[in-house]
Structures are given as structure tokens and as C-alpha cells.
């Protein structure tokens, strides 16, 4: 086939036009990607404003959309908690952290000052099963913090994960958010005032004062009795030595597991970790040991029958031995390398 002069000119014009079109597309591509990033930011702002607690409820598609980095840039930070809130999943940690997460999100929106907008989102298991499968998650909650991405952050991790073993409380999580952010953030979490609790304390105090005022003659022997103060002192000591204040500061989960066929874990391994139920277990063991010693020293010497006294000694010494065995067994759970034990 022979191409004439006119056809050759027409073909050259078409080729030149195609090159110009391709060049125009290449020039417009960054603008289109920037517009897409801007539309994602606007969409996040719109979804956040519609939520009363400023938490964006995601599904699998929205999770993939907001966590992706199609243009190599992300002009916002995003905190996402992957959770399982329905009672059927029996996730106590999920429900406890959900309240704390909402309080931090609300205060962050009102008072945080940052160069980069930060959004809070949650993905519940029924709405994000594809994401859970993709990430191979078998436990919840899991919190991921997605950093802003730009050419200046090339080579740095694009996300961080929050460790729930550090605690579920809002103050600790808020401090972690500030420390994790790569841009300067001015934010200080303030615990909301619980006016109902304050009112309860005030009315309780007034009721106690009125009761003492009207029945002082009857109550004074009880208040000034040495046995009452001895009991209160021992109870206070047992409570404090069992980790009560640590729980109040760190807000650990009461216990973990118990869902999807997994066994319940009531003792956390390691010296720096503890579950709430451990306080009750340890205080019960210490209480049994203290009670045994008190009975042996104060009660059994007053028993007149030698046979009954001997049986009582055997019984309460046996309680001390068993409780000591339980205590060393619990310590071996906390420290698996501990070589000693008694019965357990």
C-alpha cells in the first residue's frame, strides 16, 4: 500500500495530536490526583461533622479509600480503631475503649491545634469483615494511626499501632496520640467532670453526718472500738498491696479472652502488666493468709478444749500452706522463669 502526500500529512497531524493529548493527560494527572486527595479530605470533614462524638463510622470500602495513598501523599492523619462492639462478640475491652475513644475524639476536635487535620474513625467487625480478613486480625480492639504522607516523609513508616496493654484510659491514649504525631500538636486531655458522681458524694456525706449527729450515743462505741479500726486498716492494706491504685491510674481491662472459643485470661504475664480481676484475686489470697494468722494468734488461744484447739491449729495452718501455694503459683504465671513452687 502506498501512502500519498496528503495521507502522510494527515497521519503526521494525527500523530502530533495524539502526542499533545498524551502530554496534556500527563500534565493534568497530578492535578487530578490532588483533586482526589482534596475530595477525600472534604469527605472526611463532612462525615466527622455529622457525628456527635466526631468518630467516623467506616465500612470496608471507606477504610480502603481513606487509608490508601494513591498519589504518594496524604494530607491528613487518621486514627482508626478496629473493634467488635456487638454483645454477641463479648469484647469487654472494645466496649470500655469505645467510650474513652469518643471522649478523646470530641475534645481533640474542640481544642487541639495542629498543622495537619486529624480524624478519628472506627470500623466495627460486621461492617469491615473484609478488612479484618485482609489484616489477619483475630482479636479486637486494634488501633492504627495513619500518618500524613508527603515526599518529606519518604522512607518513614506510614502507620503506627497503639498497645492496649498500656491501658484503656482516655488520658493515656491522648498522650500517645500527641507523642505519635509527626507534626507539632497542642492538646491536653481533661477528664470530664462527672456531676452525678459529685452529687452522690455530697449527699452521701451529708447523710452520714446527719446519721452520726442523731445516733452518736449508739454509734460512738463502734467508731472508737479497736477491732473496727483493726479491720479497716487490714482491709485498706490488702486493697493497696493488691494493685488497686495501679488500676485507677492505668485503667487496664478487667480480663481478656472468653470470645470465639478462647480461654479467659485473668492473670497478665510480666511485672508491668495487670488485669483488674487480679486485684480481687490477690487481695482474696492475702486476706485468707491474714485471717489465718489472726485466728491462730487471737482466737484459738481462747478455746478451752485442747482437742478443738489442736484441730483449729491444723486447719488454719493448712489454710496458710494452701494459700501460700496459690500465691507462688500466681507468681509463676507472672514470671514463668520462677523455679520454685508449692504443690502447683
Count of structural domains: 2
Largest sheet: 5 strands, mixed
Q: Name the overall outline.
A: elongated
Average pLDDT number: 82
Percent helix range = 55-70%
Order of helices and strands: HEHEHEEHEEHEHHHHHH
* Strand order, sheet with most strands: 1-4-2-5-6
Can you tell me the residue ranges where pLDDT is under 50 for at least 5 consecutive residues? 1-9, 20-35
In CATH terms, what is the fold-level topology of the largest domain? Glutaredoxin
**What separation lies between the terminal Cα atoms?**
96 Å
Computed structural class? alpha/beta
Q: How many beta strands in the DSSP annotation?
A: 7
Radius of gyration: 32 Å
> What is the CATH C level class of the largest domain, in words?
Alpha Beta
Q: Provide the β-strand percentage band.
A: 5-15%
CATH architecture of the largest domain: 3-Layer(aba) Sandwich
CATH superfamily of the largest domain: Glutaredoxin
